[in-house]
Amino acid sequence: MPELPDLQAFSHNLTKRLKGKTLKEVIVTVDKKLKASATELNDALAGHELEKVERAGKELRIDFKGGHSLGLHLMLHGNLALYNEGDDKPKFEIITLAFKDGTHLAMTDFQKAATPTLDPEESKVPDALDADASALAARFAKTKTPVKTVLMDQKVLRGHWQRLCR
């Protein structure tokens, strides 16, 4: 499972590699977790230029010009693969973004649990890497719950603190 620093690095590197590229099409291989159809994804995203990739909690958000974004939650075993048209495709593709220049970004998961979401909702829960120390201190003062349990509660902090809490 990718941790917050991994996702932060993914967002930085994907923005560097894909910013300014125009999406040709969204290829949906597994629609099990989709809340929007492949047609809706293509109508919203195809033909638009990628602006940036950001991390929001445990999700990557790919923002496109035109106002739409695609959220990618890798869950436990999800991965991302960048490849060029004509290269061997990665195994276990869930969704692939095919850009006009031949670059492809695939989200893969052998368990088929990784989740793509069109225009994911913004969360009001603070991000674990941007949390306000005084707000956390106030939260801890109000509870007898162990610190680790509070830090791992996604209703308190978005993201996963498991490695920091061991």
From TrEMBL:
PANTHER family: FORMAMIDOPYRIMIDINE-DNA GLYCOSYLASE. Residues 2-114 form the Formamidopyrimidine-DNA glycosylase catalytic domain. GO terms for biological process: base-excision repair. It comes from Mucilaginibacter yixingensis. This is Formamidopyrimidine-DNA glycosylase-like protein. InterPro entries: FPG_cat, FPG_N. It comes from the Bacteria. One of its GO terms (molecular function) is DNA N-glycosylase activity.
